Amino acid sequence: MEQYFQKDIETMPVEKIKELQSAKLVKQVKHVYENVPYYRELMDKKGVRPEDIHGIEDLHKLPFISKSDLRETYPYGMLAVPLSDCVRIHSTSGTTGKRVIAYYTQHDIDLWEDCCARAIVAAGGTKEDVLQVAYGYGLFTGGAGLHGGSHKVGCLTLPMSSGNTERQIQFMMDLKSTIICCTPSYAAYIGETLKEQGYKPEDNSLKSGIFGAEPWTEEMRRDIEKALGIKAYDIYGLTETSGPGVAFECKEQKGMHINEDHFIAEIIDPETGEVLPEGEKGELVFTSLDKEAFPLLRYRTRDICVLSREKCSCGRTFIRMAKPMGRSDDMLIIRGVNVFPSQIETVLLNEGYAPNYRIEVDRVNNTDTLDVYVELLPEQLSDTTEGIVKMEKALSAAITTMLGIRPAVHLVPPKTIVRSEGKAVRVVDKRKLHD
Amino acid sequence: MKIRQLTVFVENKVGYISEITELFAKNNIDMKALSIADTKDFGILRLIVDDPEKALKILKDHGLLGTITEVIGVEIKNSAGELSKALALLAEKGVNVEYLYAFLSGTKESAFVVIKATDNLKAETVLKAAGFKEINGLS
Lengths: 435, 139
Description:
The complex is a heterodimer.
Chain A: H1 7-10, H2 14-35, H3 37-46, H4 67-72, E1 88-91, E2 101-104, H5 106-122, E3 130-133, H6 141-153, E4 156-159, H7 165-174, E5 179-182, H8 184-196, E6 208-212, H9 218-228, E7 231-238, E8 243-249, E9 256-258, E10 263-268, E11 282-288, E12 299-305, E13 307-308, E14 320-321, E15 332-334, E16 337-339, H10 341-350, E17 357-364, E18 367-375, H11 385-403, E19 408-412, E20 427-429
Parallel strand pairs in A: 3-4, 3-5, 5-6, 6-7, 17-20, 18-19
Antiparallel strand pairs in A: 1-2, 7-8, 8-9, 9-14, 10-11, 11-12, 13-14, 15-16, 17-18
Helix pairs in contact in A: 2-3, 5-6, 8-9, 10-11
Chain B: E1 2-11, H1 16-26, E2 31-38, E3 42-49, H2 52-61, E4 66-77, H3 82-92, E5 97-104, E6 110-117, H4 120-129, E7 133-134
Antiparallel strand pairs in B: 1-3, 1-4, 2-3, 4-6, 4-7, 5-6
């Protein structure tokens, strides 16, 4: 039977969820308008006052917040409570520019941990479980979020943090971890290391994994599930809205349920900002309904995805978001074509390669070049150069079919592409150096 | 006539082959013959060693990519025209040679030739029937 962490909320009828969201939104807009001068100015400029917001039907009247607003207001600008009411900060990795600092009151942390606990229970977690947190601890939200959620569920929590793979495996085996939480690329790496150490997938006690914080594909999910002998659940979140747990997957593995009691999700046209109907692909926008310290209204995530209100067999009524196709920050424009690294990864896995790759983009004589470095598996090695060149050509052709532009594919020996223990750096865009 | 060749993928990088030969030296692997096929980006190193399985394991343990390939080894007389005879015979029977390399045997009288044919079995049959001898005492 399906288990829930907060059944009444997670299975609430859709109409009730909307009523709850409307009531919370009216209050939240007032809170932000009164306490965040930067957003008040944005609203004034747009000619919207808190009194104009009567419910979720008025959400579209509010101005958006984008990453550049957060950079502009760094470090305290979006804070909506006195600093003395805050108990913690977290921060983004700053890979796409200046760091963003998010603030939390104790209440904010409680609700965030509830969200993570819902994800853990949806992945089959109970107080009997041994949950290994192999997300980084520290400024990154991954470790803290799942750690807190694990406590709420009552699992025995192993606060491993990321890295030191030998030690991860030792604890996993000796303490019989049943659930592991980390980035998908680190899960794949742990799987690879286990195999190297001679372990079979059935040798560990893991039953499920909760993986997020970076884009990954369905093919990678299947690979991780096979390598670790588990069911792999996706989890979504961003520091700006709290951290992991904004949305989570159930056993159906068909999109992630968004915790709608705390967040309103919208899909907009990234060009015009127009709200798109359910089922259309566009940029995901979140409004935090309960955040006290760092309450972002209509925050543009840059993630491109689709929402679905279709009924889910797990009984949860929360709307589901499809796995993002990639952040628009990750999107490369090569020779005028939009390229997501996840598309290249899909081809690699379909063609029987391991998802260990590096994409290099450069500009030579004013033309963009795309080089894809892929690790060869031992069983793929040919004894002739023609054999290798043929494989490179076949892979290049398969990627061309997917992207519409032709890459130069280079097969390289195993372990030559740097492995990550946190977020994978798979793209090197050398063009930026010439700008 | 079948012998086991160690095939190694090598990157076009300073010191890459030296890393391999050093590993073999340290682990007492004796190399009998070596040939390399190269492109701009990478190369394929082909080796005849005294213990290919052990050598492969050593490479693998050090993150290098290798495999064992079956090739055929033929002993030919160390005199003008002998290799030509063998190759003419294969051509006549329609056997395509993918690659070959040769090395001297311990004696002055004969040389060893390693052949990888599209159809190794047929090449072996043809050469045996013509009286060519297989290589002994390599591993």
